[in-house]
Specification:
The chain is α+β, with helices and mostly antiparallel strands. It contains 3 helices and 5 strands. The longest helix has 13 residues.
Length: 91
């Protein structure tokens, strides 16, 4: 089991994202629950990022929306960094 660490920036972005997409609230909650259990579940589509975001990872909330994060395997922590559309998150 992993511990989810909500950064201040992620908290603000998630609040704004969920106010704009209230239909995704249940999916968001379920995704975070699954992430906390095991971030490597195939349906999360966990992947490493490259380029300017090298060292970060991302999972898919839906086909269009992503959550970027950092997984600290030694401490069993997942640091949540950003949520948004593909273009917003990978800027």
């Amino acid at each position: 089991m992993y511990t989810l660490v909500w950064t201040a920036a992620f908290t603000r972005t998630a609040k704004k994202f969920l106010s704009q997409h209230p239909d995704l609230r249940a999916k968001f909650t379920a995704t975070l629950r699954d992430l906390e259990t095991d971030p490597f579940q195939p349906h999360l589509r966990y992947h490493h990022l490259t380029g300017s975001l090298n060292g970060l990872q991302a999972i898919s909330l839906t086909y269009s929306y992503r959550i970027t994060l950092t997984v600290m395997l030694t401490e069993q922590e997942i640091i949540l960094l950003d949520i948004g559309s593909h273009d917003e998150v990978y800027r």
